[in-house]
C-alpha cells in the first residue's frame, strides 16, 4: 500500500532531496501536496513530475502565475497561509516540514494538530516552540521524526531504549568552513565563503549558521525538546569529516553512533520509511577511503554563538525565540552585505541582553516575540551602519 505524503518547502534543499527519493519510488508513495514560497516554475514542474494533487505557493500574488503553469495538468493550484495549512493538515499521513525559519511554525503546528507523522527538518520551529510542539504532538497523537542528520542519528541510536539510562547525547559538528580561522580572519569573510560548506550542500541560511556554529547551538536546543534531555547532558563535539552524525552515551559506558555519507537523503529516507527501511541510490560510505575520523573540542571563544545558544536554553522562556529571530535577521543582513560575519553573533548577544519578553504560551506569542525581536535588531543595525 502506498503512503500518502506532502512536502512543505518542496523547492528547497531538503524538499528537493525528498522529491528525489519519491520520484525514484513512485509505487510506494502518493504525493498529496507540495508547497513553496515563490518559485512557481520549480513548484509546477515538481508537482507534475511526482503527480501531486495540490501545489501551494505562499505568496498570494503569484496564484495567477501558478494557475497558468498548471493549466490542464490536473494539479490544483492554491496560495496563501490558509492553503499552506491545508497542505500541512490535509490527506497526507506523512508530512515533510522543510520550510526554513519561523515561517514554518504555523504549517508545522497544523500538521501536528491534525495528528500526522511529521518529518521535521525545520529546526527553527523546534527551537522557538519546542515545548508547544511536543505537547501538541502528545495530545493529538502526532509522531515527530527528526530529519536533521544529528537528531536523526540520535533517534536511531536511542532505538526505543529507556531515556533514564541515557547519560549523554553527543552532537557532532563539522566546525564549518572557518573551523581553523582566527577571529580576525573571520571578520573579513564574504557571504560566498560562508555558504561554501566543506561537507554538506544546503540552503543559504543554514550554511551561514554552520559557519558561525549557531547551527549547532540551535541543534542543542532542538535536541533538548525532541528527546527531553537537559542541556547540561548534551555535549558538542567537533568532527570535521561529518561521518559520525551523532552519538548516545548510556549509563553502562556504551557509546552508540550512527555513521553514514553526508547526504541528507539518508536521514530523510529513514523518516520516509520509518519504522521500516527503504533502499536509496545514495553512494555507499567507504571507510577504507575515509581512513580516519578526527574529533576536537569546540572553541566557544572563536564561535560565541555556541555559548549564546546554551545560555538561551538555560534561561528558557522567550530566550530561544529571541536567539532564533535575532539570528535569522542578522544572517539575512550578512547575506545582503550589510554587516560583517562576526557581527552576527555580536548582534544576537546584544539583542538577547536588551530584550525582556514573557514566556510564549502559543504559536501566536512566538510569532509576536519573533516580530518584536526583528524590530529591535533592525534598530541596532541602523545604529551600527
Ligand atoms: P532552503 O532555503 O533551501 O529551502 C527553504 C524552503 O522553504 C523553500 O522551499 C522555500 O520556498 C520555503 N520557504 C521559505 N520561506 C517561506 C515562507 N515565508 N513561506 C513558505 N515557504 C517558505 O532551506 P533548506 O536548506 O532546505 O532547509 C530547510 C529547513 O531544514 C531549515 O529549517 C534547515 O535548518 C533545515 N535543515 C536543512 C538541512 C540541509 O541539509 N539543507 C539539514 C538539516 C536541517
Ligand atoms: Mg544538522
UniProtKB/TrEMBL annotation:
Residues 144-227 form the 1-deoxy-D-xylulose 5-phosphate reductoisomerase C-terminal domain. NADPH binds at residues 11-14, 37, 39, 122, 124, 203. Pathway: Isoprenoid biosynthesis; isopentenyl diphosphate biosynthesis via DXP pathway; isopentenyl diphosphate from 1-deoxy-D-xylulose 5-phosphate: step 1/6. Residues 259-375 form the DXP reductoisomerase C-terminal domain. Its cofactor is Mg(2+); Mn(2+). Keywords: Isoprene biosynthesis, Magnesium, Manganese, Metal-binding, NADP, Oxidoreductase. 1-deoxy-D-xylulose 5-phosphate binds at residues 123, 149-150, 174, 197, 210, 215-216, 219. InterPro entries: DXP_reductoisomerase, DXP_reductoisomerase_C, DXP_reductoisomerase_N, DXPR_C, DXPR_C_sf, NAD(P)-bd_dom_sf. PANTHER family: 1-DEOXY-D-XYLULOSE 5-PHOSPHATE REDUCTOISOMERASE (PTHR30525), 1-DEOXY-D-XYLULOSE 5-PHOSPHATE REDUCTOISOMERASE, CHLOROPLASTIC (PTHR30525:SF0). Belongs to the DXR family. Catalyzes the NADPH-dependent rearrangement and reduction of 1-deoxy-D-xylulose-5-phosphate (DXP) to 2-C-methyl-D-erythritol 4-phosphate (MEP). This is 1-deoxy-D-xylulose 5-phosphate reductoisomerase.
